[in-house]
Amino acid sequence: MRVLMFGWEFPPLNTGGLGTACYGLTKGLSKNGVSIVLVLPQASAGTEKISSVKIRAVNIANVRIKPVKSAMSAYMSPTEYERYMLKNKGRKPIYGQNLFEEVERFARQAAIIAREELAEGFDIIHAHDWMTYKAGLAAKRVSGKPLVVHVHATEFDRTGGLGANEHVYMIEKEGMERADAVIAVSNYTKQKIMEHYGIPSGKISVVHNAIDKDEMPDVRVEKNSSEKTVLFLGRITLQKGPDYFVMAAKRALEAEPDTRFIIAGSGDMEPRIIEKTAELGIANKVLFAGFLHDEDVHKAYRMADLYVMPSVSEPFGITPLEAVMNRTPAIVSRQSGVKEVLSHCLQVDFWDIDQMANKIVAALRYKELHSELRRNGYDEASKLSWSGSAQKCIGVYNLLLGKAG
Amino acid sequence: MVDICFYFQVHQPLRLRPYTVFELGKNSSYFDEQKNREILDRVATKCYLPANAVMLELLDKHPEFRASYSISGIALEQFANYKPSVLDSFRELVRAGKGRVELLDETYHHSLSFIYSKPEFMEQVRLHSRLIGKLFGKTPKVFRNTELIYSNDLARTAEQLGYEGILAEGADKILGWRSPNFIYKPAGTKKISLLLKNYRLSDDIAFRFSERSWKEWPLTAEKFAGWVNQVNGNGNTVNLFMDYETFGEHQWPETGIFNFMKKLPEELLKHPDNSFATPSELIRKHKATAELDVPQMVSWADVERDLSAWTGNSMQQSALQQIYRIESEIKRCGDEKLLEDWRRMQISDHYYYMCTKWFADGDVHKYFNPYESPYDGFIAFMNILADINERLKKANEGRELNEALRAAIG
Fold it and tell me: CA nearest A376 in B: which residue?
């Protein structure tokens, strides 16, 4: 089987969940004998960044990368795109004026690629998240092959339900409606797709993200401080709930004053969160570690006594899996998909500051709780694999091909 | 001749609130009143009231019919507080039975105290016995321990307390080749009799009745009576021990469980050698056929039939250790309310909810768990225990101050 896939740059270039998921799934599909032509939007085509992508990709059998010059990158919002273009004014004449133009331009490129690839042949088109849906549809139009759109997040998750962009929403809706099948990263997301986009249940398959035990880097950390540490790791944006994290930190410090809270990541809310820690009078207890790369991410998990993912809305949320694989227990927002595959964690409603703080204190204070979560969480996540997720994807492909043939 | 002995366990725990660390020292109301009331109300309507009506009907229709119950003190308290009609209906059942409905003793707080503190265990048994006397005018002669937890040691203790009989799970690992359908004498005792649950036949009703994938589904009274009849000639008794909530709560009314029970005595009595007996009648009628040695604790829980459902992980072990560690201090401090709260924290269900085995598979443990996870159960428990410890410290300080004052004045 051959798949024409519209995906996103792999880690370390893209440290967000989308890149990690595309990498994991590609690898898992390849392991199951599927060959893939992977079309990647790359702003900096030709620079050294590309070569590092190639290094990772070459390691995967049956995968051929097709870079397409584009100014769009995963998680980009229309405003961020405009800011990017302004910064690079005059130097990027080929790109669209705004993100939507760029999405359209990428789709035209996709049609060309699809026509080219028809010579060698492919069976399925698979597109990851809204910016590639139009590309997927264009390829479908050109080739007549069935299209699978893979929903890693919806506009409602990204904006935390506030001020969803109507245009983005329309592109998502059109993609889901006109695709032959929709893959959601969780039942939580499937529910959202049914509610907000009116897609019937039967058209949506759930394929949870995963983690591969043998991909975990072997990092060692020294813990010399008696102080306990609680980690937040992710983009500092509305969706990830960093404000709830610092409010819970304030409350938890009342009961456990010898605790340090670490915020690793960057994002548009960072200045506001820094300000907020000062307002709350806990600036000396909260450390901003900035954006972490590669092994530093895993070091951060290992250093921490506890990981918290307080997201307002998290379609999946791969970081708690990374935390428990590094043997750090996790507190997970109930408004997430990851809890469907990780039951050995603590769960809270993101808005319930008291319970979030209560559970933070309990996990730090009660050593039996900590050790049970640590052991059981690790065992549970160890059973997951991207190969398993890939097999579910192949199941969706087969269903479509059976129908088409 | 086979005597069929029905024994039903009646218990409802006091579920804890999601008590946070921030309430410590400020709030000493630990139990989820609303949830406990709601659940009791639901189970009363679905099970206790209609099941009692069926039993009353059976007693009326068949003079041979017998049934026995043990009702935890915690359940009886909740009946009195939330749903007095349930208490009335049990009293009516015992009264109308005229000796054909027997009440057994257990620990008042449905606790694991026997494993951790014998003095506390004996006090709770006494409390239960006293409550049964007060509410029903009866003095139980047969004992059954929480979750059918049993060992030689327990049988000896029950004998010392004056009981004539004791119940246990007829687990394969204690019986070996022997049959549960006889009366046994516990090793190391003189005259107490041991009655063993026939777990195959009991669980056919309690667990498998509505399971459509079971090859015997649907189970009819006629078919079940046929299985009991097969015991005739190689047994004195068939002990059918189960949760009373089997009727209408674990097995919903739509499964036909009530109609099954209504028809069962009639079907059983079709065989001329079948009859019914209460535990006390069994003991009077049949001599022990052999001695049974059970040095290790057995229970009726899970496939393991051991204590792992309550003591299997480190959270459970720590919670249990910490609650029993303060026993003597709690009893010395003289605060009655604190003593009772401490006892309520011994209800075995608190520890069952912390069980992590099979948690991810979403089995029976999850079904009965009021918390989202075993970890949440542990957190609420430990925070409350911290508050109890704080109250204990205060009570002791107060007592010491009083004593010092008295000494100074004296």
Answer: B356
